[in-house]
Amino acid sequence: MRGIAIDFEWARFDDYHVELEQPHPDPESASLISGASIGPRLVAFGESVITRPLDNYSELYLELAKAAPTIEGQREFAGRYGLLKDREREETMYWANSVWNMRKLVAMMEKRENWEMREGKYVPYEFSNSLALRYDLNAETNSLSMHVVPKNLFIALALQCVSHRADGVQIRVCKSCGALFEAGGVSGRRFHAEFCSDKCRYQFNHRNRRKKQ
Fold it and tell me: Which H or E element spans position 77?
């Protein structure tokens, strides 16, 4: 399996404000699961700019996995890349669940021992009703191309994670700072890399030299 061609655009706004819990507009119709309130959540303010986050950030899914599952972490991430579920508003509960789900997915890609098994087989990891397929015909070459179009940023990041793994990327833990990083495949790092950056490699070796003195 080769990596997936992902065609994805998303909106990032000037700012995101915290909207605290509010009464449901129709309490009588509120389900027992959701309760009779909405929030807290982040709401976008100001002008928006359309971006292609997967084109600009090759390891963005790891940024989500590292993020704090709090409203502060949600606001910091949104300020850089946009909200995960909806372009203009997002519940804090959805954010927290998304962080934990991405951590689970990264762990599955990192080690197959983390993949759930049932009756001796690995259980498929599925996203239902989360994407579309786009076919493009090149009028000059008469060639056909296919792209996967995610419905939101979280699905795009999940696809980025799986696509990179399919292209030979390995997820490793930096020996110096403990951060997750990609090695091999399309990552641009050698397959057996032990550090996420030259800075971390230098600091690790420097600490070891000092210990030996």
Answer: helix 71-81
